[in-house]
Write a structure and sequence with these properties.
Elements (H helix, E strand, L loop, with lengths): L17 H19 L5 H29 L2 E3 L4 E3 L1 H17 L15 H18 L4 H20 L4 H32 L4 H10 L5 H19 L8 H7 L2 H7 L2 H19 L3 H23 L4 H22 L2 H27 L21 H4 L1 H15 L5 H15 L3 H27 L17 H15 L1 H18 L3
Antiparallel strand pairs: 1-2
């Protein structure tokens, strides 16, 4: 007869689940409110979502305090992991989400925001991404990944434009392939090591001296393909620009930030122990991914005629740039990754928000797409403040000092040089120079061309409510004055990354 299992409640450390439970409770509450009293104004759901995200953020601050005192905290049968990577990843996820939610308060009525399900799905998605980063258990990573992805597919489709359903189906197809590759890779690694926890997989493989290196490489190849789909690394990026184009501009900006940071955190946990074990094949493949993704996406961005697609390829290029940190695998590089992504979050969300406030339901005569370059011609004459802010975001994305992303690029390139990746650092610098061309192209259109006949300044701020202006203002201030916060932010990030052993 089996003996009863007695597990003290205190040993479960349930507080480790608090950051993930808060958005789940918020999502369920929104659904219950809708059942009890339907047809309420969307501003209620926006406020509720923000409230739960603020609570989530404060619970993370509490977790950060405990981590600073006690180091890595395990909970729920050692499946949930609270360490520096988990906390930094969740800070970016929740912080970017807090900036995104008010973007639904537009002047024009976009019907997806009138559904309470939109906000419930959004909170479920956040919980999924938080589960992804707050564990080293491959099964929980997979569950979090699929929870977040399924919600995200639906959020894209809810935009209900011609290309939105196409975008959702394409993203679903890419996500299904990624899930399949991930499951195959996890299965092979479990068969080899008898564990689904990344740190134990690393220990078992090291103790065996990587004797089954052939099978290890097959498992790693599957996992690499899964992450390449999620991070839009070339050639697995294929439909990513179409997905950005079909989603609303605000959602496209959000997708360029939050799913990527969750993927980067898991990639750091999974690939860096293999890099440190000197598996040359993985180093070569990651090197190729980084260089090709940066370079090819920049080339494609150069020839785009639509600003939104240009920013989509730009986001893919930035993901390739940051993937270099996983290849380098040092504390400095990992710290640079988080610093870069925090700065990128403000700038890129600001850029897409500027597209969002100029969003029209019906295209003007002769307008080929919603955000064609011609639409922004002469913007400085018709809407000077909007042109200056958009120009600011473009200069930051190009890495022009002293704006935000210059410091991210500088620290990332210096981490490559410090680790002996001099050629890679030169390629990164060269790609930053190439990227400057297509960012400056938009600035030339805005500042040096004549406005298109019939386009007035109202077009560029058609959706600009106080909430949207506030978010764009926050993004602009963070972009301009980032240099003030770089040192304290970097010290905070480095302390957390180092204490986590990365």
């Amino acid at each position: 007869m089996l003996a009863p299992v007695n597990i003290p409640f205190e040993s479960l450390n349930v507080m480790t689940l608090t950051p993930m439970l808060i958005p789940i409770i918020g999502a369920l509450l929104i659904l219950v409110i809708d059942v009890v009293k339907g047809g309420l104004d969307k501003s209620l759901y926006v406020v509720l979502s923000l409230l739960f995200l603020v609570m989530d953020f404060f619970s993370l601050l509490n977790g950060a305090g405990l981590f600073s005192q006690n180091g890595t905290i395990l909970g729920m049968f050692d499946v949930v992991l609270i360490d520096g990577l988990a906390l930094l990843g969740q800070f970016i996820i929740v912080g970017a989400s807090m900036l995104f939610i008010p973007l639904s308060l537009t002047h024009k009525r976009f019907h997806e925001f009138s559904y309470p399900e939109f906000f419930a799905l959004f909170l479920f998605m956040i919980a999924g991404f938080q589960f992804m980063v707050a564990t080293d258990n491959i099964i929980l990573v997979f569950v979090g990944l699929e929870t977040a992805s399924l919600a995200l597919y639906t959020l894209i489709a809810m935009h209900n434009r011609d290309k939105s359903f196409e975008a959702a189906i394409k993203y679903f197809t890419m996500g299904a392939l990624a899930a399949g590759f991930f499951a195959f890779g996890a299965m092979i690694l479990y068969a080899l090591t008898g564990s689904v926890e990344i740190n134990k997989i690393a220990l078992v493989l090291a103790s065996n001296g990587y004797s089954d290196i052939g099978y290890v490489l097959i498992g790693v190849a599957f996992m690499l393909a899964a992450f390449a789909f999620k991070l839009s690394l070339i050639p697995f990026h294929t439909w990513a620009p179409d997905v950005y184009e079909g989603a609303s501009a605000a959602m496209a900006g959000y997708m360029s930030i939050v799913p990527k940071i969750a993927g980067f955190v898991v990639a750091m946990r999974f690939f860096e122990f293999l890099i440190h074990s000197h598996i040359v094949w993985l180093e070569v493949v990651l090197y190729a991914f980084v260089v090709i993704t940066m370079t090819a996406s920049n080339m494609w961005a150069l020839v785009q005629t639509d600003v939104k697609r240009m920013l989509a390829y730009s986001s893919i290029s930035h993901a390739g740039f940051v993937m270099a940190a996983v290849l380098i695998g040092t504390t400095q590089a990992n710290s640079a990754l988080f610093l870069y992504w925090i700065l990128f979050s403000f700038t890129n969300l600001g850029s897409f928000s500027m597209l969002w406030i100029s969003r029209q339901k019906h295209l003007l005569d002769g307008q080929s797409s919603d955000h064609s370059y011609d639409k922004f011609a002469g913007m400085i004459k018709t809407s000077p403040v909007a042109a200056l802010i958009m120009g600011l975001f473009m200069l930051s994305l190009a890495g022009v000092p002293p704006f935000a992303l210059f410091w991210g690029k500088l620290y990332m390139i210096s981490s490559a040089v410090t680790s002996g990746y001099t050629v890679l650092a030169l390629i990164m610098a060269l790609n930053s120079a190439i990227a400057g061309y297509y960012y400056l192209k938009l600035i030339v259109y805005m500042f040096m061309k004549e406005p298109v006949v019939g386009v007035n300044g109202e077009l560029y701020v058609a959706n600009a409510t106080l909430a949207l202006r506030t978010i764009i203002g926050i993004a602009a201030v963070a972009t301009i004055f980032a240099f003030v916060a770089i040192n304290p932010l970097l010290e905070f990030i480095t302390a957390f990354v180092y204490k986590s052993g990365y």
